[in-house]
From TrEMBL:
Family: Belongs to the paxM FAD-dependent monooxygenase family.
Record's protein name: FAD-binding domain-containing protein
Alphabetic keyword roster: FAD, Flavoprotein, Monooxygenase, Oxidoreductase
Pfam families hit by this protein: FAD_binding_3
Signal sequence, start to end: none
Entry GO MF terms: FAD binding; monooxygenase activity
InterPro entries: FAD-bd, FAD-dep_Monooxygenase_BioMet, FAD/NAD-bd_sf
Domain FAD-binding: 9-248, 308-344
Membrane-crossing residue ranges in chain numbering: none
Amino acid sequence: MTRCTSSSIAIIGASITGLSLTLSLLHANLVDATGITLYDLRLPSTPDPVNSSGVVLTPNGLHVLNLLNILPRIHDRCWLSEYRTYKDENDATTRKVLIANESLYGFKNHRVWRRVLVEELRGMVRAKGVQIQWESRFEGVLAEHDDGVVFQINGREEVAGMLIGADGIHSSIRRYVTPQDEGPEYTGVLGVLGHIPWESVAWPYEDYERACTIQGKPGALVLMPEDREGSVIMVAMQTKLEDRSREEWEALGRDKAFLRDFFAQNRDQWASQTAKGIIDAVCGHEDTLYMWPYVRMGVLHSWFSEKTGRVIIVGDAAHALPPSSGQGVNQALEDIHALTRLLVLLKSEPHIQLKEALGFWQSLRQKRIDAVFDWATNRTNVQRMPLAEREKLVREGKVLDAHNAENFDDMSWLYRPGTDRLIDEWAETRNK
């Protein structure tokens, strides 16, 4: 059994969220390296399909990564972008929208291989001397007291002052924190993506944008570079598909022929020779294909345990977002930053109770999650639909016509969340 102090912290999940949370807690001097332990069900060498693609880091998330000195370690391996470009089937640019200007938001958008970010975070955590226990299955909370939590890992009892679930969308911790909630729900939309070398396509002109969305009757092809040079491109499409069990989704995701046919069946519906060339390249690299059912979490009753608040969930465990939002990692980083700030506040303001602070944290974060989901549903997902569906939604007034918008999306609501100011203002009200 691990020795427990009221300040010790156990984190379930050693991927981006859990590792970033560890570095945030250490950076704020809330705990030293010997007082924090990460547990993960897998081995670090276990293949994870999501690590075979990249992750978008937007200014709100980059701000946190920069504070934790993570960004300088990956910056040179990221594709940087300021614009979102849309093209038609004649290869003409229909819109070029400024979305992440460095002078406005402090950073350009960064995209990096997910595995690069994970490996860098692991290296930083190891260098700090933090223990990661691999092949460790969380089996439940046994007891919860005002000064700590007793829980079970691989049949043995462990204790910590606080237990935090950063264990993703199928979180085991969530079932303890909020057993009345059903967990993630499928939105009816599925993304399928693969990777191709840039040179594998005969592009119509030399300066063809490497990060763009090609729109046509069959839907949209979304292109995103995965490295600084743009030598490898992610290609994604989305569609509607009926729900399945988790096991059925996993089996379908391993069916490379099904995923290849998903692209191939629409090939001849494209008028664009460029789109056809991209699809041919994707089908020629079917080993890179995987799928991502878009899910969201219904608003949970709580992100922390009712008894003491010493069991907490963060990131996808608390609020899954569709990958089309590009905000999964970034919102997890916002969770981490806000939670760390509030835990620091509690040390200097002992009259504020833990559960009171966590209630404010959840409310603050849920408002952000709701806004992001609404934006992704009404902007990002719609721009990837088949033409007939997009036009129908515009006619019905259910979404905005993006082509009538100015070539600037004011993203300050997303990229400059003002978290520190909101926490400071809340703390002032608690001191009156």
